[in-house]
Amino acid sequence: MPPATLPPGYTLIALDEAGSTNDEAKVRAEAGAPDGTVVWARQQRAGRGRRGRTWVSPPGNLYLSAILRPACGARSIAQLSFVAALAVLDLVDGPLPGRSRCKWPNDVLMDGGKVAGVLLESALGPGGRVDWVVLGIGVNLASHPRLEGSVPSTSLVDVGAPPLAPEDALPSVLAALERRRREWETQGFAAATRSAWLDRAHGLGGPVTVTNGERRLTGVFEGLDEEGALVLSRPGLGPLTISAGDVTFGDVADAEAAHAARG
Fold it and tell me: Considering only the top CATH level, what class is 11-199?
């Protein structure tokens, strides 16, 4: 069944199968595809998450990549991950209000399990302005892979939501993406996106460990800075902003155990 009507300004490229919708979208972005071009696949052979991790992509879940051409500089690109996470939260919150949370930097949790992820890739044009952004979104509607690490995976069906077909979820999440994007563009990150994201942030005000390669830092998750970096409060040392890394929420003993399990 084809998807319902998309929001104005969006054009759909529908595929039965793709290696990666992000890779398909990047090729089209480089060739000049306009803002609002969306690549949607019923399954992926080589889906990717952050840091090159595999995103298992069987039929029944939602896999899409949207090409955006925002009028912003390079420092603002990462803010679109939060825009996309809020759009996904709007989708999954519909059948089960209040049970979803946003996990820094780009995941959406349902009852503590990862139900969706966002993968952002981009290219710059002359003068350091953004040429294109490819915003990949994967939502576990009917099934979920097994994940390594401190956060388990889940799906909407597994947490008790009514079945939702990918062709029905697609226009809903794009409508939410359009709405959240316009808020970001007109009201700014701090006034609209950051505040909405923090209202549903997982682990805010609690202990967190951030791992980036061999570097590990522990402290309290205090919030986001004006660009979307995680603000880590450390006793006696003052706040530290972190723009990239894997985060584990909970006490230090839990974080140590999760780190050891990942090797």
Answer: alpha beta
